[in-house]
Specification:
The complex is a heterodimer of chains A (about 375) and B (about 350). Helices cover about 35% and strands about 20% of the residues of chain A. With about 375 residues, chain A is α/β, with parallel strands linked by helices. Chain A folds into two domains: about 210 residues, 3-Layer(aba) Sandwich (Rossmann fold); about 80 residues, no CATH class. Chain A has a seven-stranded mixed β-sheet with strand order 6-7-8-3-9-10-11, sandwiched between helices. In chain A, strands 2-1-4-5 form a four-stranded antiparallel β-sheet. Chain B has about 350 residues and is an alpha/beta fold. Chain B folds into two domains: about 240 residues, Rossmann fold (3-Layer(aba) Sandwich), CATH 3.40.50; about 100 residues, no CATH class. In chain B, the strands form two sheets. Chain B has an eight-stranded mixed β-sheet, with helices on both faces. In chain B, strands 1, 2, 4, 5 and 6 form a five-stranded antiparallel β-sheet that branches. The chains are: A alpha/beta (about 375), B alpha/beta (about 350). Chains A and B meet through helix 7, helix 8, helix 9, helix 10 and helix 11 of A and helix 8, helix 9, helix 10, helix 11 and helix 12 of B. Chain A: Belongs to the ABC transporter superfamily. Chain A: This is ABC transporter ATP-binding protein. Chain A: One of its GO terms (biological process) is peptide transport.
């Protein structure tokens, strides 16, 4: 292990030619310190992931031979939040609001255009080499579609065991089969299924395989991008319960991305609502669901069909007109103003900041949570009047 | 509105024709698929009726046979491998399964229309939406290209697509998901059918857009007094729009009820399980109730009640005898119109 480390350092130094990249190249001593920091455990309730002003712009180019940039799709445009150890942070929003891009940025599958993601104090957007590898071990992902995220030519054992090829220190070669069977058992599958192929399983079972793969390296954070939206109702509940059980058992922190607001409420401790690449409102689950102050959150909540005709009758429904604007050309000022019924001139001129609204500051009310609206007002849209 | 004038020329006027037969009646429908591994029995004796102006929601998980039933009604089932060994589909009292292909073609589109789930893959990507909408008029009514395009614009207006005249020559990929679904609805409405079958019309859409589209559908249904069969797995959407509900499991209807009744007092353990397994927006629950196990393989449906391996209340009789669709009554025998349950123990289920 020590030898391996030395070799890595040598490679790192050889690569570290000056003035070539804008990515900070960590020197050997710095890298060791970073790895040490990453391996240190975090106590429950302390922030494990801190996201600050995260930005991701995808360039729009024109021309074939001489490409020039004509604009950018602002998929994520200044997102900040904290994830505490042992909690579940739900992120909701419509399609195209950038929630999946946030997931990819947290996984360092995409390089951020600007901003920082601190994992235990280390900015992972600037890490490389050994330190990045250590981070990736600790942040794993469960994908949306259990039909396309599993390689159809690999057996379940190979799929769940593949992370061990990259991180052999977690499970020594001889021990892997036993470890994979253990994981299958943990997610509620028969350990004898180790030699089967994905097509022999149903959707819910496949998602369990995906979860087992996510758990293989004993991560601290699991990022779940719409983990249950492809599943049937009766199976959804099974998978959600499994995820809650695993969280307690392995002391995991979840970032739970979904568009189904009821599921997010069920599983999350805190919820962030995204709209066009920005967070509109963030708070604990009861702050968001029982005391929403941002008009978008209110509209989103009121549009959710409630499976109870009695409870529905007293509810007010806010139906937004039109579609989400294009993230390549978002509205000036507040991005929600084009669909907002409260919009005034100020909304077109000034970008509202994500902060506790002035009028609720210092008050002992659940409406006092961060909301990016100039005219934040509390309105209960979920409960019958 | 000129569209109405056109359809009035077609025989069998709607609603007040003195014909007491329901708009659509499905009787003991069976559908099976012959595959390499054996016979998959997708639909095993489905009965339901829809009247004009009524919304029937067909609720079920994937593989419960809800879409196959709809395809059989539309006559767009792939045969082979599909086969309809028995059953009747009566449209205004006439069995469509006994009609000639040409007669069915005349009903399809003009009398019964369908809205599909995935608008992007249901629309032809290389033809403009105006052309595709106009096709209905050109084929069924023999209008000229120009007239058909004018009609297409009118339809797009009706489903509230902004700047319809300017967008009629756009291609499907130039529309957003919600707008594409509106075009699908416009296409289904084109010839003012008596019955629309909507197969998961909003599943692919975001909640805010979903609310817009469901409202539009309900509004148009009221306006034209159409029957609507809404196929879905979303208990929330059903509660919003349906008049009555049929819950399907493994190719059979296991419970039917008026919408309010079903949510208040389900009479089948499967319905109870479904209702308990969805998290609620307005309250934070503890652990979710989950129905154990998986939906059955249609190649080997369990004997007796198909739900018995997953049912918490299953007894010996459930493993041997297939429960008929019992009429559900009040504890004192008082009638509950429209309520039926295919459970041997419906009394215990509904009356606790």
């Amino acid at each position: 292990m020590a030898e391996l480390g030395k070799k890595d350092d040598a490679v790192e130094r050889a690569d570290a030619t000056p003035n070539t990249t804008e990515v900070d190249v960590v020197d050997a001593a710095g890298e060791d310190a970073a790895v040490a920091a990453i391996e240190k455990p975090v106590r429950r309730g302390e922030p494990i992931l801190q996201v600050r002003n995260l930005v991701k712009h995808f360039p729009l180019t024109q021309g074939i031979l001489f490409k020039k940039q004509v604009g950018a799709v602002k998929a994520v445009d200044g997102v900040s939040f904290d994830l505490y150890q042992g909690e579940t942070l739900g992120i909701v929003g419509e399609s195209g609001c950038g929630k999946s891009t946030v997931a990819k940025l947290l996984m360092t599958l995409e390089r951020a255009t600007a901003g920082e993601v601190f994992y235990k104090g280390q900015d992972i957007t600037k890490l490389s080499g050994r330190a990045l590898k250590a981070v990736r071990r600790n942040i794993q992902m469960v994908f949306q579609d259990p039909y396309t995220s599993l390689n159809p030519r690999m057996t379940v054992g190979d799929i769940i065991g593949e992370p061990f090829d990259i991180h052999p220190e977690v499970a020594p070669k001889g021990d892997r089969r036993r470890r994979v069977q253990e994981l299958l058992d943990v997610v509620g599958l028969n350990p004898e299924y180790i030699n089967r192929y994905p097509h022999q399983f149903s959707g819910g079972q496949r998602q369990r395989i995906g979860i087992a793969r996510g758990l293989a390296l004993n991560p601290e954070i699991i990022i779940c991008d719409e983990p249950v939206s492809a599943l049937d109702v009766s199976v959804q509940a099974q998978v959600v319960n499994l995820m809650e059980k695993l969280q307690d058992e392995f002391n995991l922190s979840y970032v739970f991305i979904a568009h189904d607001l009821s599921i997010v409420r069920h599983i999350s401790d805190r919820v962030g609502v995204m709209y066009l690449g920005k967070i509109a409102e963030i708070g604990t689950d009861s702050e968001i669901y029982d005391h929403p102050t941002h008009p978008y959150t209110q509209a989103l909540l009121s549009a959710v069909p409630v499976p109870d005709p009695e409870a529905r009758e007293g509810r007010e429904r806010i139906i937004l007109t039109g579609d989400v604007p294009s993230p390549a050309n978002p509205p000036s000022g507040c991005r929600f103003r084009t669909r907002c019924w409260k919009a005034q001139d100020k909304c077109a001129e000034e970008v509202p900041l994500l902060a506790v609204p002035e009028r609720f500051k210092g008050q002992d009310t659940q409406a006092a949570h961060e909301s990016a609206c100039h005219f934040a007002e509390e309105k209960d849209v979920v409960h019958a009047a | 509105m000129t569209i109405i004038d056109n359809t009035s020329a077609v025989p069998a006027p709607r609603a007040d024709d003195g014909n007491s037969a329901p708009l659509l009646e499905v009787r003991d429908l069976h559908v099976e698929f012959h595959t390499r591994d054996g016979v998959a029995r997708a639909v095993n004796g489905v009965n339901y009726t829809v009247d004009a102006g009524e919304t029937l929601a067909v609720l079920g998980e994937s593989g419960s046979g809800k879409s196959v039933t709809a395809q059989a009604i539309m006559g767009i089932l792939d045969m082979p491998p599909g086969r309809i060994p028995q059953g009747e589909i009566l449209f205004r009292g006439q069995d469509m399964l006994k009609m000639s292909a040409e007669d069915r073609r005349k009903i399809r589109g003009s009398k019964i229309a369908m809205i599909f789930q995935d608008a992007l893959s249901s629309l032809n990507p290389v033809l403009t939406v105006g052309y595709q909408l106009g096709e209905m008029f050109r084929v069924h009514e023999g209008l000229s290209k120009k007239e058909a395009k004018a009609k297409a614009i009118e339809l797009m207006d009706q489903v509230k697509i902004p700047a319809a005249a300017a967008r009629v020559n756009d291609y499907p990929h130039q529309f957003s998901g919600g707008m594409r679904q509106r075009i699908m609805i416009a296409m289904a409405l084109a010839l003012e059918p008596d019955l629309i079958i909507a197969d998961e019309p909003t599943t692919a859409l975001d909640v805010t857009v979903q609310a817009q589209v469901m409202d539009l559908l309900a509004e148009l249904q009221r306006e034209y007094h159409m029957g609507l069969i809404l196929i879905t797995h979303d208990l929330g959407v059903v509660a919003d729009v349906a008049d009555k509900i049929a819950v399907m499991y493994a190719g059979r209807i296991v419970e039917t009820a008026p919408v309010h009744e079903l949510y208040k007092r389900p009479a089948h353990p499967y319905t109870r399980g479904l209702l308990d397994s969805i998290p609620r927006l307005d309250q934070k629950g503890q652990e979710l109730y989950a129905i154990q196990g998986l939906p059955p393989n249609l190649l080997k449906i369990p004997t007796g009640c198909a739900f018995n391996p997953r049912c918490p209340k299953a007894q010996d009789i459930c493993r041997t005898d297939t429960p008929p669709l019992y009429d559900v009554t009040e504890r004192d025998g008082g009638a509950l119109p429209g309520r039926r349950s295919a459970c041997h123990f419906w009394k215990e289920q509904i009356h606790g």
